[in-house]
Design brief:
With about 325 residues, this protein is of the alpha+beta class. It has helices spanning about 35-45, 70-85, 100-105, 105-115, 145, 150-155, 170-175, 185-200, 205-215, 225-250, 260-265, 300-310, 315-325; strands at about 10-15, 25, 50-55, 85-95, 125-140, 165, 180, 275-280, 295-300. The two termini are about 15 Å apart.
């Protein structure tokens, strides 16, 4: 998979000396609620519904006095040398009303401020965005080997307390970088937020039926009935958005066998859309990771039926997952 295959553009870069784990933090001008909300709004505007690419700076900050020999600090400093100057990951962030303290817990938050806060300004990185979808670059790439000198200077040649927006030319320069998905512990935050939007949306009943059929393969273990309902509704909502986008772009064909229903439906009252099924390619991952429109495809009913029947005959998880995806062309 490459960056260009993501369902939304990479709109900005985040530069920091400390790689993000399950959240990305920004420091407001001061510790007031107003300053935090202003910083949050600015970051949201820069994200603009897209992804961010994470860049690790060459410089590694020094901790507050007394932490120079801290085991955690020394481990982070040692690992920094391996990623300094490189693009390491692409993330989707979720603006959350949760504070960084709520994300980390009181003890970890206080320890973080003890180590890195500037004097009594105990709000470093306190504007926190949970990472709800994440892809590792494989391999990590030096940014100056990917971006032109002009792009490097424009994007990273100045300090910034926010993100660094990318233009179309810079997006084209990172488009071919290879990425692979990786799990993130905050996926449920994004799922739950979008489940609320799904509840307020109209979804075609056929789409709901098809997606519920696909999700029959998903165990959804450890979830309450309410959570399972949210996962199913959100998946159907995503599928409906995917179908509408494909219809708008004139791409109503089977992704597996290339069947074009327009020819069959010509000169009849039958719609091309009604001759294709929307199919969830990764039903076993629903509720586990933050799924997107990229997890769906369009297939003719014959291919759809075959995918499911083949998957039911397989026990190996990798083979089962492969059976549920269109044939690679």
């Amino acid at each position: 998979m490459r960056i260009k295959d993501l369902p939304a553009p990479v709109t900005a870069a985040k530069a920091d000396w400390l790689p993000g784990t399950h959240w990305i933090g920004f420091t407001p001008r001061n510790g007031s609620t107003n300053a935090r909300e202003q910083r949050r709004a600015a970051i949201n505007a820069q994200i603009n519904g897209g992804y961010i690419i994470e860049y690790v700076t060459l410089k590694f900050d020094d901790p507050n006095p007394g932490y120079e020999t801290d085991a955690g600090y020394l481990a982070e400093k040692a690992s920094h040398s391996e990623v300094a100057g490189k693009f390491i990951a692409v993330h989707r962030l979720r603006a959350s009303a949760r504070s960084l303290k709520a994300i980390l817990g009181d003890q970890e938050y206080e320890e973080l401020q003890n180590m890195w806060a500037d004097g009594d300004k105990r709000y470093r990185w306190s504007v926190a965005f949970p990472i709800i979808e994440s892809y590792a670059l494989v391999p990590h790439r030096y940014a100056n080997a990917v971006l032109s000198p002009e792009a490097m200077a424009r994007v990273f040649g100045h300090p910034s307390g926010t993100l660094r927006p990318l233009n179309d030319d810079e997006r084209s320069q990172i488009a071919e970088l290879e990425i692979e998905p990786r799990p993130t512990v905050n996926a449920w935050i994004g799922i739950e937020d979008e489940a609320k939007m799904a509840e307020q949306s109209q979804i075609n009943s056929d789409t709901v039926k098809l997606i519920n059929g696909d999700l029959a393969l998903a165990a959804l273990e450890g979830m309450s009935e309410e959570q399972k309902a949210k996962v199913r509704r959100r998946a159907a909502w995503l599928a409906e958005r995917f179908v509408r986008r494909r219809a708008k772009s004139g791409q109503l064909v089977c992704d597996n066998c290339n069947f074009d229903p327009a020819d069959k439906a010509a000169h009849t009252t039958v719609t091309a859309r009604s001759l294709l099924d929307v199919h969830h390619m990764n039903p076993l991952e629903e509720g586990i990771r933050y799924t997107t429109e990229a997890d769906f495809c369009l297939v003719c009913p014959n291919c759809h039926r075959f995918m499911h029947r083949l998957a039911r005959t397989l026990t190996d998880p990798m083979e089962k997952a492969k059976a549920l995806r269109p044939v690679e062309k």
